[in-house]
């Protein structure tokens, strides 16, 4: 009987301390876990232009083990693009996305495969607890809930992309020609109903996260501008409300002055408050509009999602 093949995609960026460990844990899982003994497996590292020894480590692992493949990007294209591109390049009956920091347990692959064999086309890992920084976990939790409220699709809370995707789903992902892919939204939008597996997110094993505030902001705004128009609508509504209130105040002021009912000077404070308030609203609206326009601009240019420097064993 021909064995099914499962590919595990592992995005990397400056993960020299974690790469040998994640490779070993995945290999041990497929070689020793009874539930996975009837499957072939591949480990596809997609490196996003690491600046440490990650690439040399991956090359060595690939030469020593036929199960290991790699793609090296010719520059840093960002986490979202690199991860998504890796998924579309993997071959097999199912593809699993797993991150090199090992905050998401590789052992959950056993549960993913079981649910997949039971008929689920997508099996996703959902963080219901986390050992990461409490403040960051709270911020992420708020963001996921916020996206679920404002999104035009049924957004999946506490989902980072970690999960299993059937080859039919990978085919759909490959056909989407979006240079700014937002995997979490795409899975919720075009994928079939998914099975959710709850788990506790661990702390990063080694090294420091390359995710800074700017990276998190980029991903957050990509999700908002791709799957919600609420901020543009709020800017319009706020502008209308301010116009109505301003017109009402102007009418009342005019009547009071004409009828000589009240005598008071129109002070500089009131003028400055109005100017700064309206200025803030205008700048906010322009900023949000700029985010949408920037995304539209990138998408219309049809640039490639990722360009490769090197690939091996694919």
Main β-sheet, spatial strand arrangement: 7-5-6-4-1-2-3-8
According to DSSP, the number of beta strands is 8
Total count of helical runs of at least 4 residues: 10
Instruction: Give the helix/strand class.
Output: alpha/beta
Terminus-to-terminus distance: 24 Å
Rg from Cα? 25 Å
- Helical content, roughly? 40-55%
Residue stretches low in confidence (pLDDT < 50, at least 5 long) are: none
What general outline do the C-alpha atoms trace?
elongated
How much β-strand is present in the residues? Answer: 15-25%
Biggest β-sheet description:
8 strands, mixed
N-to-C order of helices and strands: EHEHEHEHEHEHHEHHHE
Q: Mean pLDDT, nearest integer? A: 84
Primary descriptors:
314 residues; alpha/beta; 8-stranded mixed sheet; 17% strand; elongated
Descriptive overview:
The radius of gyration is 25 Å and the shape is elongated. By secondary structure, the chain is of the alpha/beta class. β2, α2 and β3 form a beta-alpha-beta unit. α3 packs across α6 and α9 packs antiparallel against α10. It has an 8-stranded mixed sheet with strand order 7-5-6-4-1-2-3-8. The chain is 50% helix and 17% strand.
Q: What's a concise summary of this model?
A:
This protein has helices at residues 19-32, 54-64, 79-89, 109-117, 134-150, 167-175, 183-190, 213-227, 230-258, 268-301; strands at residues 4-12, 39-47, 68-73, 94-97, 122-130, 163-166, 195-201, 308-312. It has 314 residues and is an alpha/beta fold.
């Amino acid at each position: 009987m021909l064995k099914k093949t499962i590919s595990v995609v592992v995005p990397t960026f400056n993960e020299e301390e974690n790469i040998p460990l994640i490779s070993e844990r995945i290999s041990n899982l497929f070689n020793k876990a009874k539930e996975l003994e009837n499957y072939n497996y591949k480990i596809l590292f997609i490196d996003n232009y690491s600046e440490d020894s990650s690439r040399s480590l991956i090359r060595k692992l690939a030469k020593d083990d036929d199960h290991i493949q790699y793609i090296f990007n010719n520059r840093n294209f960002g986490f979202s693009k690199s991860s998504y591109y890796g998924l579309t390049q993997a071959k097999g009956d199912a593809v699993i996305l797993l991150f090199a920091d090992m905050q998401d347990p590789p052992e959950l692959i056993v549960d993913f495969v079981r649910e997949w064999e039971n008929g689920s086309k997508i099996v996703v890992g959902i963080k219901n607890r986390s050992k990461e920084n409490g403040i960051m976990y709270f911020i992420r939790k708020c963001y996921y809930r916020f996206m679920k409220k404002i999104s035009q699709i049924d957004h999946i809370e506490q989902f980072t992309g970690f999960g299993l995707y059937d080859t039919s789903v990978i085919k759909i992902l490959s056909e989407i020609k979006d240079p700014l892919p937002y995997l979490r939204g795409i899975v919720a939008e075009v994928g079939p109903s998914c099975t959710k597996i709850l788990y506790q997110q661990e702390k990063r094993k080694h090294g420091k996260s390359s995710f800074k505030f700017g990276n998190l902001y980029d991903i957050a705004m990509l999700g908002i501008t791709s799957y919600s128009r609420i901020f543009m609508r709020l800017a319009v509504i706020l502008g209308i409300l301010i116009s109505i209130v301003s017109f009402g105040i102007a009418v009342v002021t005019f009547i009071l002055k004409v009828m000589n009912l009240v005598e008071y000077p129109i002070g500089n404070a009131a003028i400055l408050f109005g100017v700064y308030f309206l200025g803030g609203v205008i700048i906010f609206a322009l900023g949000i509009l700029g985010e949408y326009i920037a995304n539209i601009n990138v998408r219309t240019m049809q640039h490639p999602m990722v360009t490769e420097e090197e690939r091996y064993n694919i």
